[in-house]
Amino acid sequence: xxxxxxxxxxxxxxxxxxxxxxxxxxxxxxxxxxxxxxxxxxxxxxxxxxxxxxxxxxxxxxxxxxxxxxxxxxxxxxxxx
Length: 81
Fold this sequence. Notes:
Blueprint: H1 14-38, H2 41-61
Helix pairs in contact: 1-2
């Protein structure tokens, strides 16, 4: 929760997390296909699980401003008390 006491220039690491997840997703898809074609089904399964994790992570990151306030969302008022 934002209280309004954060530094003005503070930014979230979600953009970096998004690009790293996307990079991991590309490699997981490639690894799944390559290992399946090579007959290494254990490794293909491991890459498939990573593919699923990266996809779920990307969905969580892109939930919108209600999940992570952007630069145009004002901070919340500090709680009373």
